[in-house]
Design brief:
2 domains, 33% helix
Length: 208
């Protein structure tokens, strides 16, 4: 599969890049994608939720009434869960939501999303570019020239570039990432992928 390379003005340069079928042309595995997105979201959870049980509540442990003869149910201390202000039964406790996922499954998930995006023509290749300083206005004009200003876009770089990152930071629905830090969640969440030319080889090298 070959894609045309565009410049920052949205014009075709006359050059093409070849996409490896082993990365951009496989049969998507939806379950692998589901598992990695699930792991990503689980890893975002703090897991610091906590409520107090009856042994952690401040209050007297004295039996509040006699066992028999009251005509009502027997009751222990005021810290019992059946009373207002008492401890909580089976409430949430701090826990770690993360879980293990094999590297091969994660690699398959990324290939699956990239293949689906390529099939749906949601990938554009942009020639390498850089800014001397953070310039949000210029970055916005690049998105406009590629006709993706109104879409969720993920710009993938071959190597870290702080000026490009800072230029895109305040633009809604746009994210910049390098080939080494790609996540399946970001790929799925984007309507359009913009691969900077140098990132194509980096992605294929990493996923092959």
């Amino acid at each position: 599969m070959k894609l045309s390379v565009f410049n920052i003005k949205g014009e075709e340069t006359g050059r093409e890049v070849s996409l490896d079928k082993k990365v951009f042309g496989i049969e998507p595995n939806e379950h692998a994608v589901y598992l990695e997105v699930k792991q990503y979201l689980a890893n975002q959870r703090q897991g610091t939720h906590k409520v107090k049980t009856r042994n952690e509540i401040t209050g007297s442990t004295k039996k509040i009434k006699k066992q028999k003869g009251t005509g009502t149910a027997r009751a222990g201390s005021i810290k019992s869960p059946i009373f207002k202000g008492g401890g909580t039964v089976f409430g949430p406790a701090p826990r770690d939501y993360s879980f293990k996922l094999n590297k091969k499954v994660k690699r398959l998930a990324k290939k699956s999303v990239l293949s689906a995006k390529a099939k749906d023509k949601q990938i554009k290749v942009l020639e390498d570019f850089s800014f001397d300083a953070p310039k949000t206005k210029e970055f916005t004009s690049i998105l406009a020239s590629l006709a993706i200003s109104d879409k969720k876009s993920l710009v993938i770089l071959g190597a870290p570039n702080e000026n490009l990152y800072l230029s895109s930071r305040n633009i809604k629905n746009t994210k910049v990432a390098t080939a080494d830090e790609l996540s399946t969640y970001d790929l799925v969440n984007a309507d359009q992928l913009i691969l900077v030319e140098s990132s194509v080889d980096a992605i294929q090298k990493r996923l092959n």
